[in-house]
């Protein structure tokens, strides 16, 4: 992969703050999340040397689309002039969505034990695995035309760091993905940059 990907996780939501699994639930940014989105614009501008030539694509979930709109506005670009690709939406946690990890440990200890044994291949009830997530994400990324800003979700960032930067699945699945930061993927490696 010769192109550069400026990978951004959406800004904070109230569910992030509460430690709830959002998955496919459409939760908007909170005040800190909007500030984090603005911060990422400065990082993208610094790393790219000028963002006007970049391709911009985001998950259609509002927390990612809001992050992208704020980022673009901070760059002096039309806020809503970006593509939304449903393949970049967050991993589905199925019936676990809305719960916290401690709640799940009490409510579904057998399911959590199965996840702990093989977190990359495990799919929660009614949800999807990281293996399944990776298939749809890689299809979306293969269509990028050049250097791109991709605003998406923690699970998608993990899948991309595994696929494009060689991070082992066991490390990727447990990686805490920062909000308000940019993961620059280039030449089989990644760099984490903050404002």
TrEMBL record:
<dbReference type="InterPro" id="IPR029033">
    <property type="entry name" value="His_PPase_superfam"/>
</dbReference>
<dbReference type="InterPro" id="IPR013078">
    <property type="entry name" value="His_Pase_superF_clade-1"/>
</dbReference>
<dbReference type="InterPro" id="IPR001345">
    <property type="entry name" value="PG/BPGM_mutase_AS"/>
</dbReference>
<dbReference type="GO" id="GO:0004619">
    <property type="term" value="F:phosphoglycerate mutase activity"/>
</dbReference>
<protein>
    <submittedName>
        <fullName>Phosphoglycerate mutase</fullName>
        <ecNumber>5.4.2.12</ecNumber>
    </submittedName>
</protein>
<dbReference type="Pfam" id="PF00300">
    <property type="entry name" value="His_Phos_1"/>
</dbReference>
<dbReference type="InterPro" id="IPR050275">
    <property type="entry name" value="PGM_Phosphatase"/>
</dbReference>
<keyword id="KW-0413">Isomerase</keyword>
């Amino acid at each position: 992969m010769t192109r550069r990907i400026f990978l951004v996780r959406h800004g904070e939501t109230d569910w992030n703050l509460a430690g709830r699994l959002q998955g496919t639930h459409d939760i908007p940014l909170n005040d800190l999340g909007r500030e984090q989105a603005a911060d990422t614009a400065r990082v993208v501008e610094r790393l790219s040397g000028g963002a006007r030539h970049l391709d911009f694509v985001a998950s259609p979930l509002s927390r990612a689309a809001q992050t992208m709109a704020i980022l673009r506005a901070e760059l002096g670009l039309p806020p809503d002039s970006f593509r939304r690709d449903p393949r970049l939406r967050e991993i589905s946690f199925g019936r676990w969505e809305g719960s916290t990890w401690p709640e799940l440990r009490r409510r579904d200890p057998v399911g959590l034990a199965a996840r702990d044994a093989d977190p990359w291949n495990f799919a929660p009830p009614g949800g999807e695995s990281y293996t399944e997530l990776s298939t749809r994400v890689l299809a979306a990324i293969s269509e990028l035309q050049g250097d791109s800003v991709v605003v998406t979700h923690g699970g998608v960032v993990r899948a991309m760091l595994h696929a494009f930067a060689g991070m082992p699945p066991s490390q990727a699945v447990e990686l805490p993905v920062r909000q308000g930061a940019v993961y620059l993927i280039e030449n089989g490696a990644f760099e984490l940059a903050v404002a």
